[in-house]
UniProtKB/TrEMBL annotation:
Sequence ranges assigned to domain Glycosyltransferase 2-like in this UniProt record: 8-130
Stored PANTHER family: GLYCOSYLTRANSFERASE (PTHR22916), UDP-GLCNAC:BETAGAL BETA-1,3-N-ACETYLGLUCOSAMINYLTRANSFERASE-LIKE PROTEIN 1 (PTHR22916:SF3)
Pfam family for this entry, one: Glycos_transf_2
Protein name: Glycosyltransferase
Alphabetized InterPro entries for the sequence: Glyco_trans_2-like, Nucleotide-diphossugar_trans
Lineage of the species this protein comes from: Bacteria, Pseudomonadati, Pseudomonadota, Betaproteobacteria, Burkholderiales
Organism of provenance: Massilia agilis
């Protein structure tokens, strides 16, 4: 049996031909190629599967996976053989050629269970400078003062066995739920640079359904209020302010 790779990259696709080329190219350019690439496809009918078939390297394709994005991501985790799992969706791509090498070095140096960095947003063809990265602590994350951007998160596969995977009943805040579970038992290492580029467009779930996403996130954070009650209270104040802004914008 071949040696287990360092990284498993899980890419969820569904009629992704318009953007997938950038995703694939960014992985091919990585200086660290100790990688398996798992594609979880929801039944694409465009050129997506042809593009994946032509893509060289260590890959597997899970076809016709239904049930939503959380289930698709979990299917990728379950199929993974790598030591570290990352989700790089077909809208996203790595920001530089040394992302995986940098992450691997941080795992080795700090012996942590998960690593995350910044995400740079691509909006209307322009790269938006990433926000400053606040210092991470469990309480600061629970309070909404620090954040963890899903496309730039790398998790040891063994950690999923300790805390579980994505909640398949959630549509928007499944990542926040997982980081709240994971952060309780494992300290992350933060890399203060952009690791991934995320396309923000009208079809993005987080962009098209901001009010619903915020409401679901509130319900998720409430699950964990007993672990950081003061932090949750601070989050509630931030939540109310943000919801007023979103509701005002929705009326305009």
């Amino acid at each position: 049996m071949p040696a287990k790779p360092k990284f498993t990259i899980v890419t969820c696709t569904w009629n992704s031909a318009a953007t997938l080329a950038d995703t694939l190219a960014s992985v091919q350019r990585q200086t660290c190629q100790d990688v398996e690439h798992i594609f979880v496809d929801g039944g694409s009918t465009d050129a997506t599967l042809d593009m994946i078939a032509a893509y060289p390297g260590n890959k597997r394709v899970l076809r016709d996976v239904g049930g939503g994005i959380s289930r698709a991501m979990n299917q990728g985790i379950e199929a993974a053989r790598g030591e570290v799992v990352a989700h790089l969706h077909s809208d996203d791509y790595y920001a530089s050629d040394d992302v995986l090498a940098t992450v691997a070095e941080r795992f080795e140096r700090e012996q942590v269970d998960w690593v995350f960095g910044k995400v740079q947003v691509l909006r209307d063809g322009e790269l938006v400078p990433p926000y400053p990265m606040p210092p991470y602590s469990y309480r600061s994350f629970a309070a909404g003062r620090a954040w963890v951007a899903h496309p730039a998160v790398f998790v040891r596969r063994e950690a999923f066995r300790r805390v579980g995977m994505f909640d398949e009943n959630l549509k928007y805040a499944m990542d926040v739920d997982l980081w709240l579970r994971l952060g309780r038992v494992a300290r992350p290492a933060a890399i203060d640079r952009a690791l991934t580029v995320f396309r923000d467009h009208a079809g993005s779930v987080s962009s098209a359904n901001k009010i619903k996403a915020r409401q679901e996130e509130f319900r998720v954070r409430r699950r964990y209020l007993r672990h950081a009650p003061l932090a949750f209270g601070i989050y509630c104040l931030r939540y109310m302010k943000r919801m007023r802004e979103l509701q005002r914008d929705a009326k305009c």
